[in-house]
User: Which sequence fits this backbone?
């Protein structure tokens, strides 16, 4: 019997980790110990945290626990990579050193099993959401970030809480189409990166989109702290095996 192909790389995003969602955090820690520790590479493609106010928030026990769990995977031989999302783009070198991971800038092109793959969080491709794109440009500006990070941590958290509340209200007024990636942005990413495969998160709409020989894989968000009687748990990951296959997995590890 032929042995199954070894997993070279795993991809996850949009866990929105926070202390108030313990079951989601526990599922993440199990994934790290049981799945990521057996892979060659782990790519974290944004919004791993519900929010990140700055690397000085590593003093928080929950945040320190996440960094320690990632460090165990890294110390075990798995190369860990981080690409910031719209919630945790302020993760910096302090967290990277504590977690033993490498920070990436998007778009990042990875070559895995001889296959070139473009990696992004996905929010930069939601170009129809004009107000969000303007906000994104503001908070990604280095001068804005320096000014923000110079504020006391408590003040930063209060500002973030207000932004999160405003974001929830704005989402209720927007269509799914506006909050999704646009075909033009996807086409530009394929062309600029020279790849026929894109992996991203952000939209919470997991799927495989195929057209004209191009493939776009959308990662799921993770949510295990809902009432299962009214809302099913969500989660999963993407894997690339040594024979070049790209596989979508649910939370139990089953291939979709």
Assistant:
């Amino acid at each position: 019997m032929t042995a199954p192909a070894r997993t070279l790389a795993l991809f996850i995003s949009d866990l929105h980790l926070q202390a108030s969602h313990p079951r989601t955090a526990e599922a993440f820690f199990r994934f790290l110990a049981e799945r990521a520790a057996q892979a060659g590479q782990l790519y974290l493609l944004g919004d791993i945290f519900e929010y990140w106010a700055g690397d000085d928030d590593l003093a928080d026990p929950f945040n320190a626990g996440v960094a320690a769990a990632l460090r165990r995977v890294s110390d075990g031989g798995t190369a860990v990579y981080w690409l910031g999302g719209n919630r945790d783009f302020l993760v910096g070198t302090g967290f990277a050193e504590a977690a033993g991971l490498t920070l990436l800038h998007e778009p990042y092109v990875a070559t895995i099993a001889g296959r070139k793959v473009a990696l992004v969080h996905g929010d930069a491709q939601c170009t129809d959401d004009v107000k969000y794109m303007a906000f994104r440009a503001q908070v990604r500006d280095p001068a804005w970030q320096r000014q923000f990070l110079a504020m006391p941590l408590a003040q930063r958290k209060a500002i973030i809480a207000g932004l999160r509340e405003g974001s929830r209200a704005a989402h209720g007024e927007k269509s799914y189409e506006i909050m999704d990636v646009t075909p033009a942005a996807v086409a530009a990413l394929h062309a600029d990166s020279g790849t026929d495969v894109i992996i991203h998160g952000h939209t919470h709409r997991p799927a495989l989109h195929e057209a004209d020989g191009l493939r776009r894989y959308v990662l799921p968000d993770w949510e295990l702290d809902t009432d299962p009687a009214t809302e099913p748990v969500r989660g999963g990951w993407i894997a690339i095996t040594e024979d070049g296959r790209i596989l979508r997995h649910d939370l139990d590890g089953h291939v979709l």
User: Anything to note?
Assistant: The mean pLDDT is 94. The chain is about 30% helix and 20% strand. Residues 153-171 form the longest helix (19 residues). Residues 126 and 179 are 6 Å apart (CA to CA).
